[in-house]
Amino acid sequence: MIAAVWGTGEFGKYIKQYFNNEKISVEYFIDQNRDALTLNGTQIILLPEKYLEELDIVLIGMLKEIPFKDVVKKLRMAGINKIGIVPAYIFMSGKEISIKDIFWLDLKKEIMPYLETNIIDSCNLKCKGCTHFSNLYTNNSIYDIELFKKDLSKLEENFNILYFRLLGGEPLLNPDLVQYIKITRTILPSTDIRIVTNGLLILQQKEDVLFHVMKQYNISFDISSYQPTRKIKHSIIKKLDAYDLRYRFSIDIETFNALLTMHGKNNPQISQEKCFNRGCRFLREGKLYKCPLDGLMYKYKEYFGIDNLPIDSGVNLYMDDFTGRINALDDAISLCKYCSEKPRIFKWDVARKPEIDDWLDC
Ligand code: SF4
Ligand code: SF4
Predict the structure, then answer these.
(1) Using 50, 70 and 90 to split pLDDT, how confident is the model at 196?
(2) Cα 262 to ligand 2 centroid, rounded to whole Å
C-alpha cells in the first residue's frame, strides 16, 4: 500500500523516517503550501492532485496546530479512505512507529481533537482565580463513575476523540482514579489519554497501584509546574522514572489570567479567538460544553450570588442531533461576550478565602 505523510515539518519528517511496516510504503508528503517539489528526495504534493488517486493511506502527526476537522475533510474529498493519527508521545520518544501505535480514524464519525473532564472538582492547592473554580468547592464532588462511563461511551460512538485529559480539581484526590483510568482506556483504546495534576500527591502514592495501572493502560501525566510543585520536582521525576512512566511538566506557572467581565460587551469572536480554551471541549454530567468556564460557571454564580451571567450553552448528549449541536460549539457562545479580549494578568498565588474579583478583568 502507498502512504503519504501530512506536513513537511519535523513531525512529518519523523513519521517518514520512523514508520516501519513492510506492507506500507511512505512515498509522499502532502502539504497546504509548497516551497519545493521534494523534501529529502520525497515528492511533496498539494491538495488536490492526481497523485491522491494512487494513495491508500495518509498519516498525520498529532500536533495541536493542525486543524484536524478541516484536514480530514479535505482528504476525504480527495478520495482518501484510511487516515491514521500518530500520537505526539511517539515523536517525543524517538522510537519507531508501528501500526498499533496509530489511531486509525473511523471516517463515519466526526472528529473531536481535544476533550477534557473533571473527575473531581476540589483541589489540594486552591489557586487564586482557578479557571475551574476548584477553590470554591468545599466537598469532594466527583463525576459519578457510571454516568462518566455512559457519557464517554456516547461521545465515542459519534466522535473520534484524539486527545483526552482527566483533570479537576486534583484528580489524585479521587479515590477511584484507577477505575476511571481503566474505563477510559477501554472506551478510548487509541486516544492519547493524560492525567493533569499539580503533582503534589505523586510522592504520597502508597501502594503505587496507580503507577502500575497507568503503565499498563498507556496513560501519562501532564504536571502543572506551580511553585510548590517545583520544590519537589526532582523527587517526582525520580519516582516516575522508576516506574518508566511518561510525563511532561508544563512551563513554570508564575501568573494567572482573570478574564471575566460583568458587562458582556466584549466582541465574542475576538475573545474566543484569543482564548486559552480555544479548541477545548469539556464533558460534564450528560452535557458537552465549549469550554470548562461554561461548564463550571454555575459554581461561581452560586458561590457569589450572581444572576447576570448567561445560562450555560452545554449540549445535552441525549438529545436528537446532538452531534450537530456539538459542531456548532466551534462558534462563539453567549458567555464569550463576558470574557475579556485582553485578560488581566496577576501573580500566581493561593487564596484560601476566594473573592469575587479574583476572576474579574476589571
Ligand atoms: S492546581 Fe489547578 S485545579 Fe488546583 S486550584 Fe490550582 S489551577 Fe485549580
Ligand atoms: S466562554 Fe468563550 S472566550 Fe470564554 S473561556 Fe470559554 S471559549 Fe473562551
Answers:
(1) very high
(2) 14
- Judgement on whether residues 265 and 310 belong to the same structural domain of the protein: yes
Same domain? For 280 and 156 the reply is yes
- Asked if residue 236 and residue 192 are part of one domain, the reply reads yes
Q: What is the CATH number of the domain that holds 115?
A: 3.20.20
Residue 82: pLDDT over 80? yes
In terms of domains, do 187 and 327 share one?
yes
Q: How many CA atoms lie within 13 A of 2 on its CB side?
A: 12
Asked if residue 229 and residue 120 are part of one domain, the reply reads: yes
State the pLDDT at residue 50: 65
Ligand 2 contact via 191 beta carbon (within 6 Å): no
Compute the C-alpha angle 137/279/255, nearest 5°.
55
Pocket test for ligand 1, best of 116, 134, 276 (most atoms within 8 A of CB): 134
What's the CA gap between 154 and 280, in Å, rounded?
18
pLDDT at 49: 67
Q: What is the pLDDT of residues 253-302, one digit of tens each?
A: 999 999 999 999 999 999 998 888 888 999 999 999 999 999 999 999 99
Say how many C-beta atoms besides its own lie within 10 A of residue 302's C-beta: 11
pLDDT of residue 52: 76
Which ligand neighbours the alpha carbon of 256 most closely? 1
**What is the total count of domains within the chain?**
2
**Per-residue pLDDT averaged across 316-342, rounded?**
95
**Domain end: 65, 91, 108, which one?**
108
- Looking at 66, 88, 108, the residue that finishes a domain is 108
Average pLDDT taken over every residue of the chain: 94
User: φ and ψ at 210, to 5 degrees?
Assistant: -55, -45
Q: What is the pLDDT of residue 140?
A: 81
Ligand 1 site residues, Cβ closer than 6 angstroms: 123, 125-127, 130, 132, 134-135, 168-170, 198, 224
290 in ligand 2 pocket by Cβ < 6 Å?
Answer: yes
ipTM greater than 0.90, yes or no? yes
Of 282, 280, 283, give the one whose Cα is nearest residue 149.
283
The alpha carbon dihedral of 29, 34, 40, 45 has a sign of positive
Domain membership of residue 78 as a residue range: 2-108
